[in-house]
Amino acid sequence: MAVSRKREFLADANGALLTRHPPGLASALKKIKNDNTKPTKTANKAVSHLYFSNPFKKRDLWSSHPDVEERIRRLENM
User: Fold this and answer.
1) Burial level of 66, CB count in 10 A (0-12/13-18/19+)?
2) What counts of helices (H) and strands (E) characterise the chain?
3) Which of 39, 47, 57, 75 allows an S-S link to 22, with CB 3.0 to 4.6 Å?
4) How far is 26 from 30, CA to CA, in rounded Å?
């Protein structure tokens, strides 16, 4: 899972290079983080890795995505 989180940071960095607008990407992540929509009744934990931010539980050692706050911080520092 650590490799998956590392790849997510690399994807953010590549997106920032491609768009040349890291603040825009950080803003998008903030919107995703603040989304209070509950997962649908048909969603299950087997597909949690497909979400931008895991809606089922808090970040832990086994998370497939890094903490959204950390991703935002890194984009804002670019």
Assistant:
1) buried
2) 3, 0
3) 75
4) 6
